[in-house]
Amino acid sequence: MTPLLIAIVLFGACIGSFTNVVAWRLPRQESPIWPGSHCPSCGHPVRWHDNVPVLGWLCLRGRCRDCSTTISPRYPIVEAVSGGLWLSALIPAFGNGEPTMVLITLLTGLVLISLLLPLVLIDLDHLWLPEPICRAGVICGVLATVLIAWGAGSDNPMETLLNHLIASATGLLVMEGLSALAQRLLGQPALGLGDAKLAAMAGAWLGLGGLGISMALAVFSGAAVGTLGRCTGRLGPRQPFPFGPFIAFGIWMTWLMGAPWWWQRWLALVGGA
Ligand SMILES: [Zn+2]
Predict the structure, then answer these.
(1) How far is the CA of 79 from the centre of ligand 1 (A)?
(2) Contact predicate 117/26, CB 8 Å
(3) CA-to-CA distance for 242 and 190, rounded, in angstroms?
């Protein structure tokens, strides 16, 4: 079991390394594959042993081997976080006793987190959720739903698929509607159209119930962080901040625990109040 866990973390860290490259290059319209990693300051190619996730950065003490320019600690942090997130993908997999379903749940979860992480980074940097990744996210969500619905031998897989397709369309339309409404009320764009595409992705992966839960988690976590940012003065009064990371957080939390689990917590909270 342990070698499997280590392998998952290492693979996750490697994908995290690639995610760093994608997050840097996609907004600059550069190919994520060619040329290989190079120092953005001096242009020297990064040696393979310096490119080892986390360890490479630690060995170099966060500086380029050639020109000594500082390399942001964000790189090893993203790699480590990606490794941790890959490990967390085991949580929903273990709920499924059947080996085929364990594998399907794990693999689809890894695809989901590998799509969410670059979206989060690019939205943090550029307030932009790239359309190609969102579109791939919706398509992968539909494929994952097909795999899970038919793989689990559920009574009515067609109904599940339909639910997720409707949820995807609902996410897109509701968020676009809210965005238009907010713009009229506030006189400035409040939600990006990218957020609507990410909501479409949430629906495709999670279905109608999961879409509701994930968006609720996004709104609560976004409001909490936004309020904290405004109170501490780190965020200006009308300064926009990306909502995509919070939607991604909501999607991942719903994926990990399942919509019914969150729904029960919510009912307990409301009932206890
Ligand atoms: Zn350099």
Answers:
(1) 20
(2) no
(3) 10
